[in-house]
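Study this one:
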Amino acid sequence: MADSALRHHVHLLVRLFIWCLVLAAGAIASGLTPIEALAERAEGRRAALVIGNSAYQDLVPLPNAAKDARHIGEVLSRANFEVTIGDDLDKASLERTIRDFLRSLNDGDVALFYYSGHAVQVAGENYILPVDANLTSSYDLEVESYNISNLLDYMRETSSLQILILDSCRDNPFKNEYYFAGNKKVAVKGNKGLASLTPRQGSLIVYSTAPNQIAYDGAGELSPFTDALAGHILTPNTEVRQVLTDIRADVIARTSGRQVPWDVSSLTSQFFFVTRESVLVMGESLTEVRVSPQARRVELDIPPPIASEEMALTAHFDQPLKSGRLMLGSEQIEPGAPIPTNRLPDVVYLPEPGETSVQLIPYSVVSSEGHKVSGAVAIVFDPAMKPPVDEQEIPVASKEGGTTRPAGASSKAELRQLALAADVGTGFQSLSDAIPQPQQLGDGWYRIDERSPAAQIALNTRMLSEGDLVKSEDIARLGIRPSLRIIETDAKIVLKPIGQAAGEPPIVIDVKASVNRCDELAGDRLDIQGVSEGVYPNDIRIDEALAACREAVASAPDVARFRHELGRVLYARGEFEPALAEFKAALAAGHVRSGELLGRFYQYGAGVKKDPAAAVPLFEAGAARGDAYSQYSLGKALMEGNGTKADYGRGVELLTRAAESGHTFAMNQLGAEYLYGNRVPKDVERAHRYFRESYERKDIWGAMNLSLLYRDGIAVEQDKARSKKLLMEAHRGLHPYAGRLLALTLIEEQDRDQQQIFRLFRESAERGDAWGAYYAAEMMRLDRKLIAEEGDDIRLLAHALGRGEGKPAERAREALAEIPEKLVNIEVQKALVRLGAKGIEADGVLGSRTRQAADAMLGHPAPRSSYELLAELVAREWLLSKPRLDML
């Protein structure tokens, strides 16, 4: 009892003394001293696109460009950027890499683009050149390059701060005196370097040299600019404009003033590539050592402080001892003398003979930045302790309530492995589920010792980087977010124990990321918010995709992408109203591609009242974000004046942007515009270039349009066999009217297989082709044996009329007007019955009951004209037959 009371009394005295130190020094431990203004938020991403093109096939190779990009990608990864990197990219790979980057910007705060390679300026715009660019034809620029200004626009829509770094100011490798860019024909003779772009608010544009000047590729492993850039980016807590100043001075010195990096800024806030929290805490501010009064040498076993890696620290024993001496090796420690903190565990105390009281030894640790923490060791000379047998076997510090074991020993024999499985693109995943028993992690601090670029780590709302510190009790609260791009190896994060826990094995977190089955089966092509390359509408395996996407939505209802993909499957299945509900939910959650598809619903009147004007703002929103489908749909609407006032100039601009991103429908639309010249100057060579580019990407529309050129010998040598082969290829791919053109080809060849010709017309009609429906009806009129059910010919004419305006609708209207009204009325009544109307007899008389049923079925007053009414009813039936509207 007396011993216990003595121990309690000593403990209180020690704590009281430490409290006095608190008052004197300000704090025992400064703890976390965050630079709050610089902290990264976990809600957003730091995303970087890094491209280096060296191995040009037809242009001058640039040996350093790809090496520059790889090195900068590694550096930016260490600065906590999720890096999308590409080297030696051809045009298709460039488009895909940019889409990957735009996907990573879906919730990004900072967007950075670094490019090293050939780029050219045309009409004040700068264009990236992929390695397969040759610029042989004046039409090649718009299909072989990518406009940097367009990319910057997309970055602005999805991030609060944009940085462009262009190390691409080489001589322009033009092979022609002029090139087409949109609706302009631009002379390029004498152009060199890059044009200066004007940044909007929140943007920073950095050039490796001044505008219209040439940068040096360099004779070393890296270009002078990139070498300097990589050397300064990771400087902690240095604002980006100071970083650029340091880079500029470095490059000027390296090139003897021949190259001067240039930047244009409209930043309204500070940005730091690397921020470091100043963390300095004592693992234990008070340790207690119990020894026998006969001890002559006491190992203090002072735990090293826990501090940010870059801190320069020194320890001090500031107060003279009442008795005894402090030793470090053979040297006595004088009061106030600096000691390296890594030597603190080696400090020993030599007591005076017969010392029986408590000796309290205070010390402090100070950083070069002025942070200070204090601690103390209480040596208790305990008579109950056995005298040491050998003074070299002094017990180590025994913490009150703890166990006595050699310093550095581990209670664990192996690494602590945690496994976290996650679908990409579903946000941060909590680590708590991967920790079976959180208490096994022990106490103390951990440093993030390793972080694969394929995963990001956050604590609450703060992004963490290599070197940051985490308390053991916070490990279960960590969030892990895998990269949006699947790589061959799993991501890994290593947490290394420090301080008193330094002897414990590290915690290794293996992050297994995978693409959800719904994304694989129903991901949308060119979707800037998708995580897969996507599939074309005609390639969706509907039943399999439906099950996968319903499961994905059930497990992650807040992921808008899954709602969109489920809607896409339902759309392909012909279930328009359920698809409409999913698209609306996805759009409300921010998925822009859903807006584009909803717009098409309004254009066609599928599941909603037909209203092309309602589609336009949906297309506008997606187009601004860089969604190629929205750009195509808006561009086409502007060209046709569908739901909006016609604007050919802007329509061509939007279609060109969509084509630039690889949208083959846009390529075909542009090709058609230049082929026929109704709304833009006719240019058949330009049309051929677009159709060929589309076909080379395996697009059925490219095959169909290219077949027309071979059929008629336009811009190519006439080749009807080639034309027919291309039409068959397009028809097999479910092209809506390739079958009709193939049938007309067979007729021209005087093919006698009328059944085959009729079948091709009929298949095109079922796919929504008005001419196919008209021609099939005409064949029935000439050969009544082709009619499987009485009235088929009338229904096909109504289908041609209901599919819209133009010559096929006019011809169908004329043909229907020649048919006895009673026969048309009978088909109206039969259609109402097929659509579910009750009590209707097919007697050929459109009385009040029939009219009321038609009003109810259509949801509005039915047309008075019998064939106009039949056209609307047949159109309703066609939509209910689940056609592939997405193929039109």
Summary: The chain is about 40% helix and 20% strand. The longest strand covers residues 358-367. The longest helix spans residues 2-25.
